[in-house]
Amino acid sequence: MQVTPLTVGQDIWRAVRTDAVQIMISKLATTGVAAVLALTVSTTVPATTGPVPFDAEQYGLCTSAELYPHAAFGTPLDYSGDKTIVITAVELIDPVGIELLSVSVVPYDENSEHLGFSAYPPTELLATEWQNRVEAIGFTAAGPIDAVVMSELQYTGERAVASIDGLIIHYTADGVKYAGRTRVTLEIDEGDCQ
Predict the structure, then answer these.
(1) What is the pLDDT of residues 76-92, one digit of tens each?
(2) Could you tell me the pTM of the whole model?
């Protein structure tokens, strides 16, 4: 996976290399049988299927829990086809110390900032667009879409380093079920990112 550093507003980002195999090997070394179960579960995460390319971007983000204990995590919803798309569920991949509180779809226009991560709510960067957000579960669009799936995340404080390995977005296209897997990871540290 290619690691891409991001800067949004302040330069608070540090790209982190995430390699599922390395993470799982590390878990095996420290947690024994529980890690074997975690490895089994993590290998069942589906690859992206269907017409919406949720896995187009691949990078890792790291930020401080002090700066972003409550965050907005954006996933592009860019679809140019003519099928009717309905989002049916959104879930975190391998969450550690991070909870998913809500999910919205925020429409973009040609002047919109494409938001990947910010404080929640993301009104500083998407003030106008945020007013037009809708609940993601049940969101329906017939034909082309230019929007962001905005996940509201909460750092729980249970771990010094919290993380997710992306999202699974379940949806239908003309009634056929699909699962889209994002490839953007997030790490939230109590201290500075290493």
Answers:
(1) 999 999 999 999 999 99
(2) 0.75
